[in-house]
Design a protein that fits this description.
The protein has about 600 residues and is of the alpha/beta class. The chain is built from 20 helices and 17 strands. It has a seven-stranded mixed beta sheet, sandwiched between helices. Helix 8 links the parallel strand 7 and strand 8. The radius of gyration is 28 Å and the shape is globular. About 45% of the residues are buried. It is a single-pass type II membrane protein; Single-pass membrane protein. Its EC number is 2.1.1.-. GO terms for molecular function: methyltransferase activity. It is an enzyme of class 2 (transferase). It is found in: Endomembrane system; Golgi apparatus membrane; Membrane.
């Protein structure tokens, strides 16, 4: 036995060799496991097959499963709670525009149609179901003209608006002929008339606002001319109008001109439009026209078709005396003059005004100093009361024509009106998001195709994600959270993109199942300690279509918490490393919402 005994030096050598061998084996099996799960081995995909055409592939240097964990636990083994479906009666639930809650508010100035969100103890903590028979919407441009009946099963507009060519019911689909109350012969012919006065074809007009949009045929047909329209209408007796717009693949939100300012920055839109929108423009001292003036860019156009224009012909149809109808138009003319708008066209049912490109001198000559708003920031509008005052005009921005406008440095940055954002910051942001979007497209080859038509960016920054993704096959709703340190929505509009302010502690002003893809950059870090992660995720689930996709960028710890929650929400998720490698703390979470609809068993339980 004495011969088998090792001296201390031999024992140390053997221990060292054992450690080296064990470490070598660990590294080998770690690399083998990562290779098998990375997509370069077994071809594991991040998305469900959608309509037999999804083919998502993974970058070789991106891994589904990172080696980070939740409190030391393997992120693959999660014990998340299962979130149950809501009852089918909530399939079209809009939390902040709930019909029952609305009835508790005054009808004066449309207060009851404004946002009234549920209290914390009234929030639903369940998954909003799709109606039985729900299918993926038709791809654009077919979706402009046809919507599956099962997706929005409401026929009332087919009867109420039958003679106006809004919508028709044929078999198992709704057909949209492109008509409207003031353009029963089609939006295209109507827009042609406007184009004889307004430069719609050369890129001068890029962003439009449609107030009281109906089913958004105006915005749908403006897309043929590369014009993006923010359409809004209340959730009222025409309850599905905004839902139809989004099913058609047209940007729209639930909204109303009431007592609260519109959720858009000043000088945002190149053109504003009202086609028999029934907004009482002449009332409240011209407050609604003043709000349009706030969001209308200097040199922009306002189109009014319908009452009270052509009052001499229609006053009896409107059940108004000649005197009253003429008085309404006269008051509108006076308010427009006070706002320094020039009427440039009136023929039959249409009148068009143009806001002066530089109205400083006009306001000074007409002694409007006392009518100017006293607010310090005309872009600070979230839940702020509308006022009967004129927003100071400021300097007229020199915008390039679209598409050059998309990449040109926005005037707010050039003129120093965007604190903390330099021209170099803007250029770097563009480069960064081109890189990120290229990564997304390599991960999911359908990004940029008509598969993802309606896209939302929950924390849009300078709008560079949308700019990098720019395609006629899709559009992006750029959301600037109200809790953001920098208010960048004005810059986004100067780039020729559209968006809105929003607080993600509340529900968004849209119907369920209205977006194909949701992108969020550091959204959950932004809202840490402000509201519940689960509430934000449930709202994302509400507005995301079945088989829709989600792309989140955030720190690994935040995304692991998110992933733990969504695993109980009927989402399939994969966590990927940053493009620059596994040592970058920022990660990417890719998710796909499963297809499911309401079932009798769930409704009875």
């Amino acid at each position: 036995m004495r011969g088998s005994r090792m001296n201390p030096g031999d024992r140390r050598t053997r221990s060292t060799m054992t450690i080296i061998i064990v470490m070598g084996l660990c590294c080998f099996f770690y690399i083998l496991g990562a290779w098998q799960k990375s997509g370069t081995g077994r071809g594991d995909s991040i998305a469900l097959r959608v309509n037999q055409e999804t083919d998502c592939t993974i970058l070789p240097n991106l891994h589904f499963e990172t080696h980070h964990s939740i409190s030391g636990a393997n992120p693959l083994i999660m014990t998340s709670k299962v979130i149950e479906p809501c009852h089918i009666r909530y399939s079209d639930y809009t939390p902040c525009q709930d019909q029952n809650r609305a009835m508790a508010f005054p009808r004066e100035n449309m207060t009851y149609r404004e946002r009234h969100c549920p209290a914390e103890n009234e929030k639903l903590h369940c998954l909003i179901p799709a109606p039985k028979g729900y299918v993926t919407p038709f791809p654009w441009p077919k979706s402009r003209d046809y919507v599956p009946y099962a997706n929005a099963p409401y026929k009332s507009l087919t009867v109420e608006k039958a003679v106006q060519n809004w919508i028709q019911f044929e078999g198992d689909v709704f057909k949209f002929p492109g008509g409207g109350t003031m353009f029963p012969n089609g939006a295209s012919a109507y827009i042609d008339e406007l184009a004889s006065v307004i430069p719609l074809a050369d890129g001068t007009i890029r962003t439009a606002l449609d107030t009281g949009c109906g089913v958004a045929s105006f915005g749908a047909y403006l897309m043929d001319r590369n014009i993006l329209t923010m359409s809004f209408a209340p959730r009222d007796s025409h309850e599905a109008q905004v839902q139809f717009a989004l099913e058609r693949g047209v940007p729209a939100v639930i909204g109303v001109l009431g007592t609260i300012k519109l959720p858009y920055p000043s000088k945002s839109f190149d053109m504003a439009h009202c086609s028999r929108c029934l907004i009482p423009w002449e009332s409240n001292g011209g407050m609604y026209m003043m709000e349009v003036d706030r969001v209308l860019r200097p040199g922009g156009y306002w189109i009014l078709s319908g009452p009270p224009i052509n009052w001499n012909k229609y006053h009896q149809t409107w059940k108004k005396s000649k005197l009253d109808a003429e008085g309404d138009q006269h008051r509108i003319e006076n308010i427009a003059e006070m706002l320094c708008w020039d009427k440039i066209y009136e023929k039959e049912d249409i009148a068009i005004w143009q806001k002066k490109a530089n109205s400083h001198l006009c306001h000074q000559m007409n002694g409007h100093a006392s009518k100017m708003c006293k607010v310090q920031d005309a872009d600070d509008v979230w839940y702020k009361k509308m006022e009967s005052c004129i927003t100071p005009p400021g300097e007229a921005a020199q915008l390039k024509k679209f598409p050059e406008r998309l990449s040109a440095i926005p005037p707010r940055i050039l003129d120093g009106h965007a604190p903390g954002i330099t021209e170099e910051d803007y250029e770097e942001d563009n480069k960064l998001w081109k890189k990120h979007v290229n990564t997304y497209k390599r991960v999911n080859k359908l990004l940029g195709s008509s598969r993802y038509r309606n896209i939302m960016d929950m924390n849009a920054g300078l709008g560079s994600f949308a700019a990098a993704l720019d395609s006629p096959k899709s559009w992006v709703m750029n959301v600037v959270p109200t809790v953001s340190e920098r208010n960048t929505l004005g810059i986004i509009y100067e780039r020729g993109l559209i968006g809105t302010y929003h607080d993600w502690c509340e529900a968004f002003s849209t119907y369920p199942r209205t977006y194909d893809l949701i992108h969020g950059y550091h959204v959950f870090s932004l809202y840490q300690n402000k509201c519940n992660v689960e509430d934000i995720l449930l709202e994302m689930d509400r507005i995301l279509r079945p088989e829709g996709a989600v792309i989140l960028r955030d720190s690994v710890d935040v995304l692991n918490k998110v992933r733990n929650t969504v695993s109980g929400m009927r989402w399939k998720s994969k966590l990927l490393d940053h493009e620059d490698g596994p040592h970058v703390p920022e990660k990417i979470l890719i998710s796909v919402k499963e297809y499911w609809v309401a079932s009798e068993e769930e409704n009875n339980s």
